[in-house]
Specification:
Blueprint (H helix, E strand, L loop, with lengths): L2 H7 L12 E10 L5 E9 L5 E7 L13 H9 L3 E5 L11 H16 L5 E11 L1 H11 L15 H4 L9 E5 L5 H10 L3 H10 L5 H4 L2 H6 L9 E6 L7 H13 L4 E6 L12 H19 L1
Length: 297
């Protein structure tokens, strides 16, 4: 057994109240079909470890933002003793669905192959996803073996791609995910939110994929999917992803046999975690406590 494998097989512990210094670095992940180099930002706690690993998937309505989008949450998680790896995703203007889900699937396998470089433990790899990144996280977790999603091989790690459990994750924590993509689009139409309408049309091309890649409809169709524990944090004042949509999805996920911890944040809009304050502090504490429960399970 090599050193990297030994590190990954050691039992790691997590105390959400712990405090660690964090070193941040950026590494190249892969070049996407549009020619852009997708990067990974590593938030590495400084300590003995190994530290449980978390993959962060950014939001931006599938059309904007990058690995820096959730820096406050990423730093908060890393400083409590988690190896956080935030990755760039292909944007809809570069390639439509399922390109960014392929990125996420690839990143999960890549992290499993490389986490030991940063003293990470991937035995219970989890995902944090924000807004559209939460939608991507849901599809990654529900369909870890989908051959469309796993189409991108991990360079220099054939042993990871040879295992069909390669992209499986153990838990997902999310903020404001569009868990029902068609309902979110219809809400954008009602609000005449032309930017959101166009984002959906650019990403879901052909248009029918808005149904095929809709987590709510996946459950409604009775598809056989993986059901890992979910945390969904939803703003009560969110007019982008409505609380009623999220509550319906949480109920459907539980009815299918999954565990879903649904938390409604009062006085909070769609992107409340980007603004310092009590609700952001509460969101960070909520995610840490959820992760601690999953790592002890």
């Amino acid at each position: 057994m090599d050193g990297a494998t030994q590190v990954q097989r050691q039992a790691s512990t997590y105390n959400p109240d712990a405090r660690f210094d964090v070193v941040v670095s950026d590494v190249e992940l892969r070049r996407n079909a549009a020619g852009r180099m997708l990067m990974a930002r590593i938030y590495q706690p400084q300590g003995k470890g190994p530290f449980p690993a978390v993959l962060d998937l950014h939001g931006g309505a599938w059309t904007r933002k990058d690995r820096l989008a959730e820096e406050p949450m990423d730093r908060a998680l890393a400083s409590s003793g988690l190896l956080v790896v935030a990755v760039d995703l292909t944007l809809a203007s570069e390639a439509p669905y399922p390109a960014c889900v392929q990125d996420a699937n690839h990143a999960a396998r890549w992290l499993k192959a490389n986490a030991a470089r940063w003293n990470g433990d991937v035995s219970k790899l989890g995902v944090y996803g924000s807004s559209s990144g939460g939608h991507v996280a849901e599809l990654l977790a529900m369909r870890p073996h989908d051959p469309r999603y796993s189409a991108i091989p991990v360079a220099d790690a054939p042993e990871v791609d040879a295992l069909q459990g390669d992209a499986t994750v153990s838990w997902v924590a999310m903020r404001s995910p569009p868990s029902n993509t068609i309902a979110r689009y219809e809400n954008a139409e009602r609000r005449t939110n032309e930017t959101m309408i166009q984002s959906n049309k650019t990403f879901f091309s052909p248009w029918e994929s808005i149904h095929e890649g809709n987590p709510q409809e996946i459950l409604d169709r009775g598809e056989k999917v993986a059901l890992v524990p979910y945390l969904i944090m939803q703003g009560a004042l969110d007019d982008n992803v409505l609380p009623a949509m999220q509550e319906k999805f949480a109920d459907a996920y539980r009815a299918a046999g999954g565990l879903c911890d649904y938390r409604l944040f009062e006085d909070s809009t769609h992107e409340w975690v980007a603004v310092p304050g009590p609700q952001t502090d509460k969101a960070q504490a909520t995610v840490k406590a959820f992760i601690a429960r999953q790592l002890k399970a």
